[in-house]
Amino acid sequence: MSTVSGIQQPIRPLTVEAGFAAWGALIALTFACIVLQHSLPWVVTFPTAWQVPIAAGINVVSDAVVPVIQPLFRSISALLDVPMRGMQACLSWLPWPATMAIVVVLSLKSGGYRLALLSVIALGYMVIAGYWPQSMNTLSLVLLSVPIAVGLGFALGLLGYRFPRFRPGLLAFLDLMQTVPAFAYLIPLLLLFGFGPVVGLIASAIYATPPMVRNTMLGLDRVPSDISEAGLMSGCTRRQQFWHVEVPTALPQILVGFNQSTMAALSMVIVAAIIGGFEDIGWEVLSSMRKAEFGQSILSGLVIALLAILIDRLTLGFAKERPNGPTPIMAWMSWRRLAGIVVVALVAAAAQRLFLPDAWALPSTALREQVGIVNVALTSVVRDYAWFFNGARNVVLYSLLLPLRMGIVGAATPALWGFALTPPMVAVYVALWLAIAGLAMKAYGWQLAVATCMAGLLLFQGFAGFPWPALILGFGLLAYRLAGIGLACFAMLGFGFILVSGLSAPLGQSMYLTMLAVILCLMIGGLLGVWAAHSERVSKILRPICDGLQTVPQFVFLIPALMFFKVGEFTALIAIMLYAIVPPIRYVEHGLRNVRPDVVEAVQQMGATPTQVLMQAKFPLALPVIMLGINQTIMAALSMLAIAALVGTRDLGQQVYIALGKADAGLGIVAGLSIAFLA
């Protein structure tokens, strides 16, 4: 909205003539920059003289402030260390049958027999695989970080609900917290709190806070006005109305926030292990990955996956509203009976520790010790079929990754493609793309023609060599077309911030890797979503796979990719795709399944074929849901950049990881803010 004489006016989009002229000028500018790049290299490579030492300035401020406030934060760290060690000692002291019994009765109360069976399988695997102590250490981290995150999130959500003027700033802060990679804010935490398990606890709590804030505000906002008025008419004070009327009504949504915060805290276990250094399951995954022991990596990664799925189902079961009421076993398992069983389990555990200390000892770690056979087998598979894995990697590398990163002008060399690019070849390329643009304009209008021309220039030059003035102006023009001058200024300032910070090269790497991963995820995941929307059998098969991919922490995706394809950008691409492919599957299926049946029937009665029904009826009606899936796919791909940096990328995520290794707060914050801007 714009303001003229005190009256809000709607944004006036560009007219057809002005839009065509603006995009035509942008294409001409891009073409001119590409032609003149050898005589004017600054149009492609951002000049070093124009860069501003923002990271160095942040480090100067950090060096001055941290020593002053560090004693306070170290005291907080020492205070939190006591309950942390106490929780670890308590869970280690509790015999595994007692822990399993407590979790089983909680599962019966939350989800019934199926969830109880899942809990037995998950906890039994942790015992048999020899990861019980490490799992309990991880659980102690979650059990302490989640209450901190829930309490802080509820307080901030209440603040945003009670004082609407604070909400825009609070939402912007939450967006920043959720888009800045966890590695970036680990650096100031390390400087303030020091190295150890408590830092992992605090990092997990911070990362898990935003979902609770959002769901608290959403739940309180959705309290029907008639319920609030009924509380007031009953004579409730403002405090009574809030705690006895509004909070119980919003409780299901608040419990969803509790579920999401718990999952977020659990997803941080490996990141916390990097700076925590204590014997938990995240440390086991990291250690086995560093030693290339893929068998142990799979075993320990499976523990995290099972723990994540179990906690997700357990907490979501309490948050879920049941229209038909609880099942008989859930109704029988009242809170009083549950508390009684827990007390009996604790008393039995204390008696066993006193009188039969050797009973219920953990089984030997034979499975972990014998998994070396799996390592040998996997190594043999990788060695024997290296031709296949290397071939697949090289095909994608030379046909997709290098052309997008270096462009055709950089990839068409005797060393890579076996031939050099000549002027006649360039002329043929330009003529081909102009012909395609002409056909696009004739069939779909000038907008698609402009997009075709820009895609041709981008493919020719590559992300690494694309002129930065055209990049900034292009995104600014697109933002203005979509949302007006405000978003256009934000986009241009954001890209300008990244360039003047000296991160133009990592920016190009991040953009091309993210774009390729998103395109492939949309193609593969979209097709799977369409298939699942039209087949119940496929939907039932894909549902647990998607659940597993969504609950597995991000680091675990590196294991299979690293195992078969070794270090490199292709490995990073595979890991990003594994994490980002779930949203297009889920949202495409959900959108197509929820298209109004009467509309579909009307189209079918008009004689449309199944393909026409899908393309001309279902897809247009499901487009808002599908667009949300595209948004979530992009966010998931960007969130994996810092994780994928561990296997050899040179993008913004790698800058964050380098900053963490050097404890460089300035570089970490600048790189993290750059990723947040893109997100």
Automatic annotation (TrEMBL):
List membrane-spanning regions.
20-44, 50-69, 90-108, 114-132, 139-163, 183-208, 261-278, 298-316, 337-355, 416-440, 478-500, 512-534, 555-582, 621-647, 659-678
- Gene Ontology molecular function: amine transmembrane transporter activity; carnitine transmembrane transporter activity
GO cellular component annotations, sorted alphabetically? ATP-binding cassette (ABC) transporter complex
Please give the InterPro entries that the UniProt record associates with this protein.
MetI-like, MetI-like_sf
Q: Is the keyword Mitochondrion assigned to this protein?
A: no
Question: Superkingdom of the source?
Answer: Bacteria
Q: How does it sit in the membrane?
A: Multi-pass membrane protein
Which PANTHER family does the entry mention?
GLYCINE BETAINE/PROLINE BETAINE TRANSPORT SYSTEM PERMEASE PROTEIN PROW, GLYCINE BETAINE_PROLINE BETAINE TRANSPORT SYSTEM PERMEASE PROTEIN PROW
What family does the entry list? Belongs to the binding-protein-dependent transport system permease family.
Q: What is this protein's record name?
A: ABC transporter permease subunit
